[in-house]
Amino acid sequence: MNLIYFTPNIYEEITKITQERKKAAICIITETKGSTPRKSGSKMIVFYDGTSIGSVGGGELEFFIVQKAKEIIELQVPQTFSYGLKQDFDMSCGGNVTLYIEPIKLPDQLVIFGAGHIGRTLAFFAKDFGFDITVIDEREGIFDQWDKNNFKLINKIYDEAYKELKFDYKTYICIMTYAHKYDKVIAGYCGAVDSAFVGVVASKNKAAKIRKDLVQEKVLTKDQAQRIEMPLGVPINCETPEEIAISILARLIDVKNSVIVQ
Predict the structure, then answer these.
(1) Same structural domain for residues 194 and 137?
(2) What angle do CA 239, 241, 242 make, to 5 degrees?
(3) How confident is the model at residue 9 (pLDDT cuts 50, 70, 90)?
(4) How far apart are alpha carbons 215 and 20 in whole angstroms?
(5) DSSP state of 105
(6) Distance CA 138, CA 185 (A)
(7) Is CB count within 10 Å lower at the N or C end of the chain?
(8) Assign residue 239 a region: left if phi > 0, alpha if psi is -120 to 50, beta otherwise?
(9) pLDDT value at residue 61
(10) Do residues 205 and 117 both lie within one domain?
(11) Do the Cβ atoms of 114 and 137 come closer than 8 Å?
């Protein structure tokens, strides 16, 4: 088998895909025998909508590989395939080709609503656990002392901040603003979007009221409201922002590592 070298363009595209949180897979020809339109090392990126960048040979082969790549994006499990071009696709070149298709893994995204004591501490702790972290808070000057290299910081009202966010199956949402009314509104929005996890820092009484209101006001279904984890964090005796942040991070890690197939 020939060694595979990624071109700078492929690196750039993969970086862009992860930044924009698009569903995609990389397809690589790992071995060829006989006459084939493309040789070992040829690469193609396939997006979930069926569009692609690059080529692994065109024709019936490429059409078929695009369909396989879409399946693999859905399953999130890499696979290897071997085909005879004449036997399988009636392509006159007649050689054999082996391809490896791998879903492009999106990083786990942690979205924190609220940059107060707990939110700031949670962001600081979570950056060492592989999360891409976005923090949203509308208060003027709240981010003045933050490390802007390690976090995406959105200093806007929450209704405007939603427009800059893209939620998906690897998004973890933690809500802890300075006002209960905002926690309820954000929980109502986030409870209906795609995500791996949604939680709100709340007492048992606050949690019960938020759930009841969101269902009665027909913002969320009962199942959607129940999915929101309140109180947020593993149940340990904690009081300080640091202790609460650790309990929340422990819960996020538990959920993240419990997912076997995305």
Answers:
(1) yes
(2) 100
(3) confident
(4) 32
(5) P
(6) 14
(7) N
(8) alpha
(9) 86
(10) yes
(11) yes
